[in-house]
Amino acid sequence: MVFGGLEALKSKELRRLFDERRCLWSTLYVSLEGLIAKFDMVLEKITLEGYDALKKVLEGSKTRTVILFTGSKDSASGRSWCPDCVQAEPVIGKVMHELSTSSFAEQNNMRYIECSVGPREYWKDPKNSFRIDEKLKISCIPTLLEYGVKGKKLVESQLTNEVLVKEFFVEDE
Question: Membrane-spanning regions, if any (predicted)?
Answer without folding.
Answer: none
